[in-house]
Fold:
Amino acid sequence: MAIAKNTICIWYDKDAEAAAKFYEETFPHTKMGTVYRAPGDYPSGQEGDVLTVDFTVFGIPCIGLNGGPAFKHNEAFSFQIATDDQEETDRYWNAIVGNGGEESQCGWCKDKWGVSWQITPRTLTEAMTRGGDEAKRAFEAMMKMKKIDVAAIDEARRSSS
Structure:
């Protein structure tokens, strides 16, 4: 992989390589690149330990940094994945949650490393961009959900009550 001009650096305790492999297996257009290992011993590790991993998520360049337990992920950073239908929504949601992750609200979940993901069907985004009553109905439906139910969002978009 060529060195990108702008790269997202994601701090992991010690599992950047495992996370990159999981993302590569889960998402299309996602690839794990070079794994950089420590050339010598250092205060919190040994020669050969993984320091960083280059990877992409849907083509977005990232570096996974094994920085230790000092910093934890939170919802201030998330990947937002636009899905086309319920099958795609389920596939990504179930992969993340089923691999030691956890559900949250309104299409948000966290992977086992604590990275937040928004699995967002396009129908929800379309409703929000239209504004008005359609956006309000879709928003109210979404607020009751963990994983987004595409049929329920579509129904809320159509309903006039």
